[in-house]
Amino acid sequence: GMFIIRSTLNILIESKKLTYKMTKPQNPEEYLSEVLVPETAVRLIAQDRQIGLEEAKKVMADSAEFGMYVHDIELEDLELK
């Protein structure tokens, strides 16, 4: 899901509609990954389930937690080294 969202939103960078001037202090790629992709995911979850944004954020967090459990990933494994 996140890959599809990222690929779709990447058009904003390629078409120069998302620029550093708009996203500073982050570069457009960081802003896309850290702000737009998660926000889009939350809104799609809310729309799909017909729930509010706060509940959709919880669904997304629960899904991430479940995914980490299923794939045996520890939080420490995700930290930058």
Proportion of β residues?
under 5%
Main beta sheet: none
Tell me the helix content: over 70%
Number of discrete domains:
1
| Separation of the first and last Cα atoms | 26 Å
Write the layout of secondary structure elements.
Blueprint lengths: L1 H13 L5 H4 L4 H22 L3 H18 L4 H4 L3
How would you sum up this structure in a few lines?
By secondary structure, the chain is an all-alpha fold. It is built from 5 helices and no strands. Helix 1 crosses helix 3 and helix 3 crosses helix 4.
Describe the structure.
This is Restriction of telomere capping protein 4. It is found in: Cytoplasm; Nucleus. The chain starts with a helix and ends with a helix. Helix content is about 75%, strand content about 0%. The mean pLDDT is about 90. Helix 1 crosses helix 3 and helix 3 (about 30-50) crosses helix 4 (about 55-70). The chain has 5 helices and no strands.
